[in-house]
Amino acid sequence: MIGDGIGIGIVGLGGMGNLHARSVRELGATVVAGADLVSERRDQFADQFGARTYETHEELVVDEAVDAVIVATPNRFHEPIAVSALEAGCDVLIEKPLAHTLESAERIAEAAAQANSICMVGFHNRHAASMAMFDEQHARGRFGDLTHVEANYVRRRGVPGPGSWFTSPELAGGGALLDIGVHALDLALYALDFPEVVEVSGITRTTLGTSEEYADPEGFGDNWETEAETYEVDDSVSAFIRCAGGQTISLEAAWATNREESMDFRVRGTQSGAQFTIGDTDLQILEAGTAGCDHYADVNLSGDSTMTGYSEQDERFLEAIATAGVPETNTVEEALTVQRVIDAIYRSSESNRTTQLAESPTERAVQLD
């Protein structure tokens, strides 16, 4: 199997850490170590995977059995863990987003560029069946030139519990945009082959999550106590992104808003269009023709129902390690572009005007010279 002989260490033993551990084990890798500050999580992880456990990532990255590290912690801690792992010679997979701030993301990218190791970022929706089918049809030229993407990741009510790291600006760096909007944004840029972004306009809002009468019919956020908890992050965002080649992206993301939930992803092309639900396994292609008479031609493709993206993403990571090759997807460079657009959306909202992407450290250094 692709993961044979690869020792994996997981930092952050919550839901995502355990998901990755199960995934890489099914792909043949060995889960040799885990790290988490919470002793109960360490004990459960050790029992389930037969792995050594540590309280800190510093101990894990120097474990000689660890070949690769998967980072599944709150966003603020991505940088110190990833940098330590890269400096220790480990390959690294970082859960999305790359970091909690653009500056932190840039430091990770710099460390990855200097390391002789693989570094990838966890945008699993690229590998769901819906997107895999879109990629193949796009490669065949079916859509013509892609012109616009409508990307939605909207919950009607789905704010993570206040007091958790998700609603802490210090730990998360942002709210709905950095948590779920990042998935839709990455997928949109990926669909368009990461064109140069020239202008961003965005508005972030904090409206429903701070209400003392917040209704949570499905109990998404446990132990809701608005008065007792800090909530200083965005719970919705609307953004418009213009690219150098004329392509555009409209983004809607929300933890909570007074509209129906939606994870609709729609792509317009000059020959045909496509739409699907983010992370789903079906794809609809929208075309029109004149044969016989003017008509619409809608084609529905049904993909592998087990192909949700998580396993496929981890398989790409293990393949890159096994072949010592340069990753062809989920690269740090792509994740840094996503982070720069997110930063521009926040700055646009703060200034109430359109903005451009922040200069990279290299560009800033050139200007200073």
TrEMBL record:
Give yes or no: UniProt keyword Oxidoreductase: yes
What name does the UniProt record give this protein? Gfo/Idh/MocA family oxidoreductase
Give all residue intervals belonging to the GFO/IDH/MocA-like oxidoreductase domain. 139-271
Q: Which UniProt keywords apply?
A: Oxidoreductase
- Which residue intervals define the domain Gfo/Idh/MocA-like oxidoreductase N-terminal in the entry? 7-123
**A GO molecular function for this record?**
oxidoreductase activity
Instruction: Note the InterPro entries from the entry.
Output: Gfo/Idh/MocA-like_OxRdtase_N, Gfo/Idh/MocA_oxidrdct_glycsds, GFO_IDH_MocA-like_dom, NAD(P)-bd_dom_sf
Source superkingdom: Archaea
